[in-house]
Amino acid sequence: QVQLVESGGGLVQPGRSLRLSCVSSGFYEFGSFKAMAWYRQAPGKQRELVASIMRDGTTNYAGAVKGRFTISRDNSKNTLYLHMNNPQLDDTAVYSCHGAPYFGEDYWGKGTLVTVSP
User: 99-103: which pairs have CB atoms within 8 A and are 24 or more residues apart?
Assistant: First the structure.
């Protein structure tokens, strides 16, 4: 069994910075995930992909966050990060961590709420 636990959410002012973390625990080696990603779901909206990072370090970003957010992973700490720079009101959402192994089911964290407000 694998657990993904997010932290770092909270209230942040527009233009400030915030870092989200997702710690993985369980039998599946963190560094072996084919891909990991951050998703978000704003009130009344569908869940959307924010950013992803492949095992080889290749990253991909949604257009709305490109240039402002950075996804990274530290295999030695079993941790996935999302650095949110210059967050805007539209970035308010529940942010969830996702892990895709090469075989078997995908894994999801329960999410952490980020509220961007003056």
Answer: 99/2, 99/4, 99/24, 99/28, 99/33, 99/35, 99/36, 100/33, 100/34, 100/35, 100/36, 100/37, 101/28, 101/32, 101/33, 101/34, 102/32, 102/34
Token pair of 99 as six digits: 């892990």
pLDDT tens digits for range 19-58: 999 999 887 777 778 999 999 999 999 999 999 999 999 9
Interval 59-85: pLDDT, tens: 999 999 999 999 999 988 999 999 999
CA distance 25 to 56: 21
> How many CB atoms within 10 Å of residue 22?
26
> Nearest 10 degrees: CA dihedral of 67, 78, 94, 53?
40
CA-to-CA distance for 104 and 57, rounded, in angstroms?
Answer: 21
Strand partners, 53: 36, 59
